[in-house]
Prior knowledge:
CATH class: Alpha Beta
Strand content: 15-25%
Helix content: 25-40%
Number of domains: 1
CATH topology: Glutaredoxin
Number of strands: 7
Largest sheet: 7 strands, mixed
Shape: globular
Structural class: alpha/beta
CATH superfamily: Glutaredoxin
Order of helices and strands: HEEHEHEHEHEEH
Distance between the termini: 66 Å
Strand order of the largest sheet: 2-1-5-4-3-6-7
Amino acid sequence: xxxxxxxxxxxxxxxxxxxxxxxxxxxxxxxxxxxxxxxxxxxxxxxxxxxxxxxxxxxxxxxxxxxxxxxxxxxxxxxxxxxxxxxxxxxxxxxxxxxxxxxxxxxxxxxxxxxxxxxxxxxxxxxxxxxxxxxxxxxxxxxxxxxxxxxxxxxxxxxxxxxxxxxxxxxxxxxxxxxx
Length: 180
């Protein structure tokens, strides 16, 4: 009995030690500081132009994403239950308040436009307030240093106003409410 308990504790210790400081996260942003107005995906940076295809095969660029609007929101999805809860919350609590902003879902896992279209359809997001983009070569993923749940706001001048993991939508709505 003692050896089983010791083995369990050893395995638990090894497992938890692999987490590093993630057991007690500081909450501090450890990304490299950026210069305001420089090119990139960090907050205060000017987002470079891009071209990513939506699930209908149309190219979406920075200028088309923000055309005639105050800005654009990009949400990086893996189509998992957590992403679905974020997207559902955004659809009901945020998009109705900001008709002057375009909302995009970024599928970076399906690997093709057809795969992204299938995933969007299967998850109930093929039509509606979101436009789904197929980031097949990880253009947006890499520039934003994104992962599942990353939410980015770009204003109509191309400046990144927010780049963080989605939590409860409060900061997203706060950021959108002060877009110029």
